[in-house]
Amino acid sequence: MVTSMDADGTKAGYDLALTQTITSQVSIPVVASGGAGNCAHIYEALTVGGAEAALLASLLHYGELTVAEIKHYLKDRHVPVRL
User: Fold this and answer.
1) Beta strand 2-3 with 53-55: parallel, antiparallel or unpaired?
2) Cβ-contact 32, 54 below 8 angstroms
3) pLDDT tens for residues 26-77?
4) What domains are defined for the chain?
5) Is 72 helix (H, G, I), strand (E, B) or coil?
6) Alpha-carbon 6 to chain mean position
């Protein structure tokens, strides 16, 4: 798991440069963490950042998004998800 302490809690998006740097250097799955503010941020972590998964908390805890909304957003953009 890669957590950007600078992005954590900001809802301004994941640190894509940090995530991509790590995903390009390791052969194990990477989970992006810290900064999710909307579905687009999650999509970017998985595509641009190369993460296998994305951790998010505030968006779900405070009911801003549902898991179903996120999954449908990703599916509509051809990211494999289980529905």
Assistant:
1) unpaired
2) yes
3) 999 999 999 999 999 999 999 999 999 999 998 999 999 999 999 999 999 9
4) 2-76 (3.40.50.12600)
5) helix
6) 15
